[in-house]
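Lecture notes, continued. The same structure-token format from the folding unit now serves as the input rather than the output. Read the line below as a description of shape only.
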């Protein structure tokens, strides 16, 4: 079922955006949406969480300037709750999610709607194009767009158009969101993956296209990156608890690595202290093996980058892997 009949006017689009502490990026993100090269009407619905910066002031100034912007409250600050609140206030049958720090290109909305109609999918999305400004951000971006860094997910590393388990952000049919009851507000993270799983489980299709590319700004420090990936791991564990059929080798790799490094280090220390060379060698094999693999992968990933960026890629990879794995083992 298409969103519009052949020859009909382009369908209206509601762009929903959960916003929390986005003073720095909000104006640019909203301006990019309103500048979209799209033939149909576009509205922007901002769900405002309890920000600690001037985000609310910026949002109200934008709404006062642009009648196409609607503001709704999101007292909990949770992304899933904000998304549901924005969907509830949205007027159109095509719902596009954009984050407060994302920049969509001018043709993003048009391509998303066209792909939704051409494929008959319930949700379409594209590439999470990580791009950094500082040396560390660029190192994280390189790690996030590599197979060794994040596995083979097409929305990270690219690939052919086709059905997917999940996609970045998303362009949804409202009917699909209503069919599955919207986002699960108990999910603090991984709400996209969980929603897309329910869409697929109820007979819908999630579609990836490399034509859609959204600029994403990585975290700017090891601490911030570690917190982000720890939360990712915790809530991906919750998805597997609720939906055991979604467990895969790719999602078990990081927690297995963390467990192996921890156990190996303990055995290595015991063997070294007690003078049992064979036990020590066996124990240190896992952490040393991971370190060597990390360095080799970093050298490959960092081709073409500056020396300063290449030097930071091993730390970015280790932070992502170990924080995600630790979060998965910890659980939500």
């Amino acid at each position: 079922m298409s969103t519009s009949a052949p020859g009909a006017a382009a369908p209206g689009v509601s762009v929903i955006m959960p916003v929390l502490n986005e003073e720095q990026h909000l104006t640019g993100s909203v301006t990019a949406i309103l500048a979209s090269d799209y033939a149909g009407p576009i509205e922007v619905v901002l769900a405002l969480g309890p920000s600690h910066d001037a985000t609310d002031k910026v949002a109200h100034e934008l709404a006062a300037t642009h009648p196409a912007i609607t503001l709704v409250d999101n007292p909990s600050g949770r992304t899933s709750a904000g998304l549901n609140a924005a969907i509830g206030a949205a007027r159109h049958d095509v719902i596009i999610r954009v984050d407060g720090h994302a920049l969509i290109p001018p043709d993003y909305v048009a391509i998303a709607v066209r792909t939704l109609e051409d494929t008959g999918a319930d949700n379409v999305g594209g590439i999470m194009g990580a791009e950094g400004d500082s040396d560390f951000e660029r190192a994280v971006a390189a790690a996030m767009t590599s197979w060794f860094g994040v596995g083979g997910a097409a929305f990270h590393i690219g690939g052919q158009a086709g059905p997917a388990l999940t996609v970045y952000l998303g362009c949804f049919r409202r009917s699909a969101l209503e069919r599955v009851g919207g986002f699960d507000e108990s999910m603090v993270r991984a709400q996209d993956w969980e929603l897309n799983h329910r869409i697929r489980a109820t007979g819908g299709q999630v579609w990836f296209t490399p034509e859609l590319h959204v600029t994403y700004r990585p975290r700017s420090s090891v601490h911030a990156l570690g917190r982000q990936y720890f939360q990712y791991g915790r809530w991906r564990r919750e998805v597997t608890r609720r939906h055991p059929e979604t467990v895969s080798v790719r999602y078990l790799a990081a927690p297995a690595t963390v467990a192996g490094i921890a156990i190996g280090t303990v055995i290595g220390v015991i063997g070294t202290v007690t003078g049992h060379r064979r036990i020590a060698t066996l124990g240190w094999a896992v952490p040393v093996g991971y370190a060597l693999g990390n360095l080799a992968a970093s050298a490959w990933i960092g081709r073409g980058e500056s020396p300063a960026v290449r030097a930071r890629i091993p730390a970015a990879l280790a932070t992502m892997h170990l924080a995600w794995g630790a979060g998965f083992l910890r659980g939500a």
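Point for the exam: The first helix runs from residue 26 to 34.
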